[in-house]
Task: structure prediction
Amino acid sequence: MKVTLFAAAVMAAVGLTAGTPAPAQQSESSGVKETVKEDAKTVGHAVAHSAETVGHAVADTSKKVGHEIAEKTAPARETVREDSKKAGAAIAHGAKAVGKGVEHGAEKAKDAVAHKSEDSKPND
Result:
């Protein structure tokens, strides 16, 4: 209905402005010109009102769809959040284990080098 009203308003505006040839407009009385002017103004307001109504309807529908999408994707977002926490904890644990392994390896290497240095000293 809104589209039909909009189309009718546009057709009325076109009909009012293009309906009479240019030479006839020059000989029109001021009353006819005023009537045409007022009719065009009325049609313009009707078109603006229809456009505003359609715009609000589109905005409302978009808002509702957005909320529905948010509600339906909430469980998936929560799953991703929990999986990310678990993955982060596993990575942190692995990094800590690697760090401890490197630390123990460095200590063994240090001890091995220190023992060799003591063995290679000449006896007094």
